[in-house]
Specification:
Layout: H1 8-18, E1 37-42, H2 46-56, E2 61-67, H3 71-84, E3 91-93, H4 96-100, E4 107-110, H5 117-126, E5 130-133, H6 141-154, E6 158-160, H7 168-179, E7 185-192, H8 213-217, H9 243-260, E8 267-274, E9 282-291, E10 294-299, E11 313-319, E12 323-326, E13 331-335, E14 338-340, H10 356-366, H11 374-393, E15 397-400, E16 405-406, H12 410-414
Parallel strand pairs: 1-2, 1-4, 2-3, 4-5, 5-6, 7-10
Antiparallel strand pairs: 7-11, 8-9, 8-15, 9-10, 11-12, 12-13, 13-14, 15-16
Helix pairs in contact: 5-6, 6-11, 7-9, 9-11
Length: about 425
């Protein structure tokens, strides 16, 4: 290959990491070398360090490589890894393609900015690596199609980094929805509070020597370097991400797709306002999705319903026989005026997760897809991309589910994929 071609402990670790608690001491458990999965981590900011921490604490994993376009971050990550594994022989890289060229890497995790997710995953599949990819799935909707095609062609395994998916609360909420105890659910309301960070100005300057800025930009349009656009703040610029909405959609929409499997999206209508300052992702956003027999509404504030007011993120399900409100870790069910947290008559029907990262490692070994697999993630994230297009065009859009195209709207269809910067089109499309 051309070198530049391409149960509770783990649940607890996943939950802690999802809320930003970074390093947990390794337990010292060991697995036979023949049973170990050799993992490399690509992207070593806050979420990338969480990836490294989670996998470092799995006895079946050996971390063999660390990569970041900021070499300083890669070296800092290596030192943190050696606190946990003093004898680690992991190597550091600035260019992920060297990792994909290694035969001793079984799987990679990806925690780069959104605009790099798809190409790295596709190249990893082509190189025979399995992928644990951070959310959102990709920068654009059509990239998800390319990822799924490549995964199937190369017989690979993929897990989307929706860590909350592993928790018991989402499993139970999905079981309640699937049981029919709420009757026919015709309306769902989703919300996430919070505004993007206000960035007052961009201070253009020469990139630091330890940062490969051209590669950081990669497939995105060229821009002069400004530290305010780089690393964490990238998510507040439409060139690289979609702000709070794109950051959190899959974390709460996940329970909807798991429990209800919405079908045949027909129309998307989005309203919103640009962030204050120089960032251009939404300050707030409201989106209405019309599916066959189901309406889903997204807001940036909690809806005016019982149980929603104190939740910074949540999902409300309105059925003909009852309602349910849930967030990451709790739920409230209302049936016939009675407030419940569970319905014991509903049996456990969904196998519980051993932990999101452990589920991925198990899948790598079994060659069976994990819970947040790519086909599922693509369906669940699709409405988010359409809503962002509606926001940018400031008009309602009609959707053809069968063709996966907007109806009679070429301008909107062109926004389903953004062409890559020529020198960083690594997958040749």
């Amino acid at each position: 290959m051309n070198r530049f071609l391409n149960r509770r402990r783990f649940v607890k670790i996943s939950a802690l990491g999802a809320f930003g608690l970074q390093f947990i001491p390794f337990t010292g458990l060991k697995a036979a070398p023949s049973d170990r999965v050799r993992v490399a981590h690509i992207g070593l900011g806050g979420m990338g360090l969480s990836h490294m921490n989670w996998f470092a604490n799995l006895p079946e994993v050996e971390i063999v490589a660390l990569c970041d376009v900021d070499s300083q971050r890669a070296e800092e990550a290596l030192q943190k890894l050696k606190v946990v594994h003093p004898n680690s022989k992991a190597k550091t890289y600035q260019d992920f393609r060297y990792i994909l060229d290694r035969d001793d890497v079984d799987a990679v995790t990806i925690a780069t900015p959104d605009h790099w997710h798809a190409q790295i995953a596709i190249l990893a599949f082509q190189a025979g690596k399995d992928v644990y990819g951070e959310k959102p799935l990709s920068y654009s909707l059509k990239e998800g199609d390319l990822m799924l095609k490549s995964l199937m062609e190369n017989n690979r395994v993929f897990q989307l980094g929706t860590q909350i998916h592993a928790g018991d609360n989402y499993h139970r909420a999905a079981e309640i929805l699937q049981s029919g105890v709420l009757g026919k659910v015709k309306t769902v309301r989703l919300w996430k509070t919070g505004e993007p960070t206000t960035i007052e100005k961009l201070n253009f300057q020469t990139p630091p020597s330890h940062l490969n800025w051209d590669m950081w930009l990669g497939p995105a349009p060229y821009s002069e370097y400004a530290p305010e656009k780089c690393h964490f703040n990238y998510r507040y610029f439409l060139e690289y991400s979609g702000g709070v909405f794109q950051d959190f959609w899959c974390h709460i929409a996940d329970v909807v797709w798991w429990g209800l499997e919405p079908q045949k999206l027909k129309k998307v209508t989005t309203r919103g306002e640009k962030a204050d300052g120089v960032g251009d992702t939404p300050k707030w956003i409201e989106a209405d999705f019309k599916f066959k027999n189901l309406d889903i509404h997204w807001t940036s504030t909690p809806p005016d319903i019982e149980g929603a007011e104190n939740r910074h993120i949540g999902a409300y399900f309105e059925g003909t026989k009852g309602t349910m409100v849930c967030d990451y870790s709790s739920r409230e069910i209302r049936i016939n005026g009675e407030l419940l947290t569970d319905i014991i008559d509903i049996p456990i029907s969904i196998p519980r997760s051993p932990g999101h990262q452990q589920n991925f490692i198990d899948a790598v070994k079994s060659r069976k897809q994990p819970q947040s697999h790519l086909a599922y993630a693509r369906e669940m994230t699709m409405p988010m991309y359409l809503a962002m297009i509606s926001y940018r065009l400031q008009r309602p859009l009609k959707w053809n589910t069968k063709k996966e195209l907007f109806r009679r709207d070429e301008e909107a269809n062109e926004m389903l994929f953004r062409p890559y910067r020529k020198e960083w089109n690594l997958i040749g499309i």
